[in-house]
């Protein structure tokens, strides 16, 4: 049996970041993942500025090495397409200068990004990584958690667990008692394509809010070598109530919609079309307890509007590791002490999660969405604010203040 202070279940972006942060704090930990890396993960592969900024907090060197990763496509903004087919280009930064600045957004296949993170783990002296080992049993004992694989041959005893094993975590369901609720959960699918026409020259990612897909959207994210990640997601209650088959809906849309039919005429699908769940942070949950904290998808923390979960997995990974350090220092792992983690996570993330939840509901009303969109296309101030929101998260707060809309209407 291995004994350790902290055991992390899952080496995706959330678990890997928690381990890297612990390592940089001089705390040793064990990380267990059922997969052997490099491994794939169904995702849109979009990495926002939040990924870099939180990795920089852990170690500037990691962020610099990520900037140099050759397998990623630098992206300079987002193209939004409204239900009435109006499009609005919003750069991540107003008046960006490609020659003089580093990009703040990327698209990188998860097989490469997650492997980059695991390579960082392998170089970290305080991290012991076990791949190809699925954790199956969790037993709370007086002095810690005993975890093991199904055979019971692999066992780790830890004072504290960081649960980062993704959207289908049995620990989240059974121990933390967080249930999947279809109105706060989405289903997503994606495939890789080669040869899609009409991509943005500065590799803007594209979000298409087509009328027949609402409350979901279709995305096209540019990748290196002329590839693209193409996918769609939709709230699970809508999928269930309307009996939608997402795979058929996506492939039919690409074939039958005149604009996509032209753009995909010579394109070739280079992978299978696969799906996975998105546990959305549309409401607050209790994400820690006696001797454990949940991180990333296991904590149901994906942005309900954009579907972005990697940045939030990384951010919660950092916070969980810092909370673990405080608990080890005080030798105190009670649920009451752990609650400081929930408090910090929601203090930092709830303003944007709750705003995104409001925007997600707005998408259900195409006419209202079209109206707001039309205003954005005409109004430079609104476009600049949306643009600034990508690199200055605090500016998003402006969007929650009625006075902001009032001023916009006056300036129309
Ligand atoms: C279709 C789709 C599109 C998306 N697009 C985007 C996007 O463009 N940008 C974005 O930011 N987010 C996107 N997301 C969300 C993003 O994929 C997740 O939020 C992110 O992967 C969460 O990271 P994580 O570390 O919490 O979990 P994961 O990445 O799921 O990692 C969990 C790890 O735990 C391991 N594991 C699981 N069970 C066990 C076990 N029993 N024992 C040991 N190990 C285990 C797994 O092998 C895995 O390595 C998308 C999601 C979907 C489904």
Automatic annotation (TrEMBL):
It comes from the Bacteria. One of its GO terms (molecular function) is oxidoreductase activity, acting on the CH-CH group of donors, NAD or NADP as acceptor. Residues 4-329 form the FAD-binding domain. InterPro entries: FAD-bd (IPR002938), FAD/NAD-bd_sf (IPR036188), Geranylgeranyl_Rdtase_fam (IPR011777), Geranylgeranyl_reductase (IPR050407). Signal peptide: none annotated. Pfam families: FAD_binding_3. NCBIfam families: GG-red-SF (TIGR02032). This is Geranylgeranyl reductase family.
